[in-house]
Amino acid sequence: MKDFDLHWIDVSAGTPETFEMVFYAEELEIGRVRFTVSEQVGGRVALPPLKVQTPIIQANSQIQVKVASIGGGESVSISLQYHTY
Questions:
Q1: Contacts 24+ apart (CB under 8 A), 63-66
Q2: What confidence score (pLDDT) does residue 73 get?
Q3: Residue 11's pLDDT is what?
Q4: Can you give the residue range of the structural domain that contains 6?
């Protein structure tokens, strides 16, 4: 495994909502992104990729994401796009 950093996040959500995601490598905050799903036409809404730029993360680090929303009850699905060094 090589060191890496995060560049993009693919997100889908089930209802119109404002979200904030905070990214951690081990216990250190490495990134934060806020986004709004403004309209839904049945099912889940896939957003265009969200830009995030983290510092270089040491190989084999555990990445955690905490998600908050105004409504507090919605979930999101995410995929992370990264670059290795």
A1: 63/6, 63/23, 63/24, 63/25, 64/23, 64/24, 65/21, 65/22, 65/23, 65/24, 66/21, 66/22, 66/24
A2: 64
A3: 87
A4: 1-46+69-78
